[in-house]
Structures are given as structure tokens and as C-alpha cells.
Amino acid sequence: MAFYETTFITRQDISAADADKLANQFSDLIKEMDGKVLKKEYWGLRNLAYRINKGRKGHYVMLGIEATGDTVKELERKYKINEDIIRNLTIRVESISDAPSPMLKSADNDDRPSFDDIGQ
Predict the structure, then answer these.
(1) What's the pTM value of the predicted model, to 2 decimals?
(2) Residues 73-97: pLDDT tens digits?
(3) Which of 2, 23, 24, 104 has its CA 20 to 30 A from that of 72?
(4) How far apart are the first and last CA of the chain?
(5) Fold adopted by 2-95
(6) Is the dihedral of CA 69, 41, 9, 107 positive or negative?
(7) Domain spans of the chain?
């Protein structure tokens, strides 16, 4: 079995709890097909780079999984069927890190200067 990171974006009009329910449904699917969910991160409601179906925002969720290729194919098929998911991406990685992802780190502590720091 190989390691994968799969990220999906849901519509902006569902709640964060609904996005978490979707993540749990996909986690259950992975476990049913003898895979493992090693990491689950909710990145929050974020702005999209461009409008998708007249929406400007989406709930981002990332799963770090260990699974077979057939499991990933079935997971991506379920992504396409679900009307709440507007985009998804699955990539194969060498390993799944226990540390928070860079997207989660940037949401916690933003290193960009604030407006107060610019004038000083």
C-alpha cells in the first residue's frame, strides 16, 4: 500500500460540521477497503482563487491515507458523485508527516506584517 494526500473542497453554504461529516464518510470508505486514515485536517472556510459555480469560498479538508490504488479510484469516484464537493486532488507521497501541514500552520500564525508594523 502507498501513501496519499487527498484534499477536497466543499461548497461554501454547508456548515463546517457537514464538511466534517463528509470527511468521516470518506474515512469510513477508506477503512472498509482495508486502508488507513493517518491524518485528517480541516483547513477552514477559505477564499477560492476563482469562482466555482458562483461561489467565492469553500471548506477545505485534507486526509493523509495509506491505501491501494483501487481504494483511491473508488474514493475519487465518490468525490465526483457527491454534489457538495466542488474540487478534489489526490497525490501520492513518500510518507505522511505527523506535523501540521503548511496550510494549517499559515492559518494559525500569519507571519505577514500587520498594518501597525508597516508605519514603524
Answers:
(1) 0.83
(2) 999 999 999 999 999 999 999 998 8
(3) 104
(4) 54
(5) Alpha-Beta Plaits (3.30.70)
(6) negative
(7) 2-95
